Amino acid sequence: MKNILDMSINEVKDAIAAVGLKGYKADQVLDWIYRKKIFDFHEMTNISKKDAGLLGSRFSIDIPKTTDNLRSSDGTLKYLLELADGNVVESVLMEYSYGYSICISSQAGCRMNCSFCASGKDGLARNLTPGEMTGQILAVSAASGCEISRVVVMGTGEPFDNYDNFIKFIETTNDRQGLDIGQRKLTVSTCGIIPRIYDFADYNSQVNLAISLHGTDNESRSRTMPVNKSYPIEKLIHACRYYINKTNRRLSFEYALMPGINDSIEKAEELAKLLKGMLCYVNIIPVNRIDGVTYKGDPKANVLRFYDILGKHGIHTTVRRELGTDIGAACGQLRRSHADKVQHRNRQG
Ligand code: SAH
Question: Is the model's pTM score more than 0.70?
Answer without folding.
Answer: yes
